Automatic annotation (TrEMBL):
Molecular-function annotations in GO: iron ion binding; oxidoreductase activity
Domain of life: Bacteria
Native source species: Rhodopila globiformis
Pfam families recorded: Ald_Xan_dh_C (PF01315), MoCoBD_1 (PF02738), MoCoBD_2 (PF20256)
Gene3D superfamilies, per database record: Aldehyde oxidase/xanthine dehydrogenase, a/b hammerhead (3.90.1170.50), Aldehyde oxidase/xanthine dehydrogenase, molybdopterin binding domain (3.30.365.10)
Annotated protein name in UniProt: Carbon monoxide dehydrogenase
Length: 788
């Protein structure tokens, strides 16, 4: 399609685009009638438990399964070699990049279960299958893993040091990718000529993802059709099916993936984990379904973690505080394996997102992605986007203090102005729309910025330190990919949208239905959504990167136009008119076809009913149905942006910090459902506050996790978050038919910098220039004591 479509007609109607329509699935979920994977039990199913290494790094000498196999109810005990002998292949190794010297990134082979070495605590070495979950757990405890321990390394910077333990022969120095982007000489010249240079070394701490629903899966095998079926919670069944082809050594048409309700993911459930091919093979071997469900303590080890970057940022500025060049250098911790880890976050996503909303002539990013003896680090709500927005906003705040420039003013001087759009960045991205100066001004007004000194004084009178911080952000959404837009007119009179994105808590059903209702006039309550069956899909990019509405929305609009075309041709026959004389319109009664210039019409849903009941006889060449299956080319990147302003109070006697005020202005383009968008922002902000003050994965020198349960790992609670003030300043995107920009990860992108900038502002009276996340009471108290 060319240009944008107008979906704002009948804007006062209850289900129109722009209306705060509650999520369709909420009544079912709130009544406890949701269908999550662990709720499913198939006839004759067995239960699996994984045997995991308790050693972070070591050579496997033997896996003794004798005692386990003799226990009551145990049906099979499988090692890595058993799976290899049974024909299973290696785990998928993720995206490929080039090293700075142009060489290909190595991809060490990871089998489904470890056979040579273990590389982190939790590395699976065997799977026990039994009649019951308890019997399987007893069997797993009876497996004896003979492992010779080796020295371990858990920090990326330590892993590249001379003499560090080596995880793979194929990656000397543990570096999986030596990434570089930018013109080194030009950037160096800009720094040499700069009137001022600001430098900060920032640790972006590792976090556990902690969705409400732990991972769970049920594997089945049909010997007659030689077909595998996997039921699990994931972020996209079409993509998961493709990821399984390597381990199963099977073509995609022999694999079916089914997903029901998903209780959160935040990026973590997008990957193919070793448990999935392991239980599928066990199902084939035993001739019955096999179910596996993670326990919460186990998930701290088995799930991919988030963040974990160690970066130095440098900003070159002229005498007026205008940016001349940006340079970022450092490490990204990938963990032990590529299958659930990703090298994109500390490399390509740093490049794309580090420009933010600021005119930056030159950019250089040098980052090494490094293997360590830790759980793999995968995508986590933003996957590099919040991290780098945090870096840039901390740099600007620090530069403003060093140069004696107001913190808001230094941002104004560097904003990309609306008249400069479209603006091509040194990262190669092109911003199509936005109004960054206005968003800052609106956010400052919303925060009552000018009256902050009075609030600061009031806090001081109570013995508290108070600070205020800005977090102006811009994100680059996920990359384009083909997306399905199916519209199916069902026998019961309902209409089903079929698409390859997948709702794991966002609430896709309502906004997708709003788009379709606006385009075709189909009653909102008659629209259902199907996302979780790979057999029903022609394409599907899954959900991730804040792109679902752009991708599925584009596919739905294009599919709706095909429905219009089919309907126009069918209506011409029913109304006994020429096709060229048939018009389609959405009126208050719904969508209808009309003979131009007359009052002769037939409603879309009425036409569907006549076709369904066989009351229409159509000539050859006329589509026999209104239903369509369409694959759309997903639109290019979009650029959601905004500005958050946080206020933090600190008790200097205890080091306890809390967020006491929070406001935000966001540009998400055309907002289809403001209720859901605001909820997405709230969730992301709370996760950001959790990382700022509470969450931190800690390993000891032997690679043993010290934060392996909720006894040791703190998640944010309701009393850790203030009330939020949310407002929008939408500037429609020009890159997709809806004009939307995505919102799912923006809460983290705005909260990390605004909260930490506010904390540093509160502590600035002590001369404290920076403090790393998580700013726990102990860290804050120690910083105050050290500053005197």
């Amino acid at each position: 399609m060319n240009g944008q479509v107008d979906l704002t007609q009948f804007a006062q109607e209850k289900y129109a685009v722009g209306q705060p329509v509650p999520r369709k699935e909420d009544p079912t979920l709130l009544r406890g009638q949701g269908r999550y994977t662990d709720d499913l039990n198939l006839p004759g199913q067995a239960h699996a438990v994984m045997v995991r290494s308790t050693i972070a790094h070591g050579i496997i000498r033997a896996i003794d399964t004798t005692a386990a196999k003799a226990l009551p109810g145990v049906l099979a005990v499988l090692t890595g070699q058993d799976l290899i002998d049974g024909g299973l292949g290696a785990m998928p190794a993720g995206m490929s990049f080039k090293n700075r010297d142009g060489s290909a990134m190595p991809k060490p082979i990871q089998m489904v279960l470890a056979t040579d070495k273990v590389r982190f605590v939790g590395d699976p070495v065997a799977v026990v299958v039994a009649e019951t979950a308890k019997q399987a757990k007893d069997g797993a405890e009876a497996v004896i893993a003979g492992i010779d321990s080796l020295p371990a390394v858990t920090e990326a910077a330590a892993a590249v040091a001379p003499g560090a333990p080596q995880l793979y022969d194929a990656t000397p120095g543990n570096v999986i990718l030596d990434f570089h982007h930018g013109d080194t000489e030009a950037v160096a010249a800009a720094f040499a000529s700069a009137a001022h240079v600001t430098r900060l070394k920032i640790r972006n701490s590792r976090v556990v993802v902690c969705p409400m629903e732990p991972r769970s899966a049920i594997g089945e095998y049909d010997p007659e059709g030689e077909r595998w079926t996997l039921r699990l919670g994931c972020q996209g069944v079409f993509g998961m099916r493709q990821l399984l082809t390597g381990p199963l050594q099977a073509p995609v048409e022999k694999i079916r993936v089914l997903t029901g309700n998903v209780g959160g993911s935040f990026g973590m459930k997008a990957s193919c984990y070793p448990e999935y091919p392991a239980i599928l093979y066990a199902a084939k071997l035993l001739g019955r379904p096999v179910k596996w469900t993670d326990e919460r303590g186990e998930s701290f080890l088995s799930d991919s973690h988030g963040r974990d970057h160690d970066m130095e940022q440098e900003l070159a500025l002229d005498a007026d505080g205008r940016i001349l060049a940006l340079r970022i250098t450092g490490y990204g911790n990938i963990g032990a394996y590529l299958s659930n880890g990703t090298v994109l976050q500390p490399t390509g996503n740093i490049v794309r997102n580090s420009i933010g909303v600021y005119a930056t002539p030159l950019q250089e990013v040098s980052a090494r992605a490094v293997f360590t003896n830790t759980s793999p680090v995968g995508p986590y709500r933003g996957a590099g986007r919040p991290e780098v927005n945090y870096y840039i906003e901390r740099l600007l705040d620090t530069a403003a203090r060093e140069m004696g420039i107001d913190r808001a003013e230094i941002r104004r001087r560097n904003h990309i102005q609306p008249e400069a759009l479209p603006y091509t960045t040194p990262a190669g991205t092109t911003y199509d729309s936005g109004d960054f100066p206005t968003i800052l001004d609106k956010a400052l007004a919303l925060a009552d910025w000018d009256r902050f000194p009075a609030r600061k004084q009031a806090s001081a009178e109570r013995g508290r330190l108070r600070g205020i911080g800005i977090g102006q952000y811009l994100e680059v959404t996920g990359p384009p990919a083909p997306e399905m837009g199916g519209i199916r007119f069902e026998d019961d009179g309902t209409v089903t949208i079929v698409t390859g994105t997948l709702d794991y808590g966002q609430g896709h059903a309502s906004p997708f239905a709003q788009v379709l209702a606006a385009r075709l006039g189909i009653p909102f309550e008659k629209i259902a959504l199907l996302q979780g069956d790979s057999d029903q899909l022609l394409a599907g990019g899954g959900t991730g990167g804040s792109k679902s509405l752009m991708a599925s929305g584009t596919a739905i609009v294009e599919a709706a136009d095909l429905v219009r075309e089919n309907g126009r041709r069918i209506a011409a026959h029913v109304l006994e008119a020429a096709e060229a004389d048939i018009e389609f319109e959405v009126v208050h009664g719904g969508g209808q076809f009309r003979i131009a210039g007359t009052d002769r019409t037939i409603g879309l849903m009425d036409l569907a009913k006549r076709l369904r009941e066989g009351r229409v006889t159509l000539p050859d060449g006329v589509p026999p149905t209104l239903s369509v299956s369409h694959v759309a080319n997903s639109p290019p990147f979009a650029y959601p942006n905004g500005c958050h302003v946080a206020e933090v109070e600190v008790d200097p006697e205890t080091g306890v910090a809390e967020v006491v005020r929070y406001g935000m202005v966001n540009d998400f383009g055309v907002v289809v459902n403001p209720l859901l968008v605001e909820g997405q922002a709230h969730g992301g902000i709370v996760q950001g506050i959790g990382q700022c003050f509470l969450e931190h994965v800690v390993y000891d020198d032997n690679g043993q996790p010290l934060t392996g349960s909720y006894m040791d790992y703190a998640l944010p609670r309701a009393n850790d978050a203030p009330f939020f003030t949310f407002t929008s300043h939408p500037v429609p995107a020009k890159t997709n038919v809806l004009g939307s920009k995505g919102c799912g990860e923006a809460g983290c992108a705005g909260s990390l910098p605004s909260v930490m900038n506010a904390l540093v502002d509160a502590l600035s009276g002590y001369g404290i220039r920076h403090i790393d996340m998580p700013a726990t009471p102990l860290r804050v108290w120690e910083a105050i004591q050290a500053a005197g």
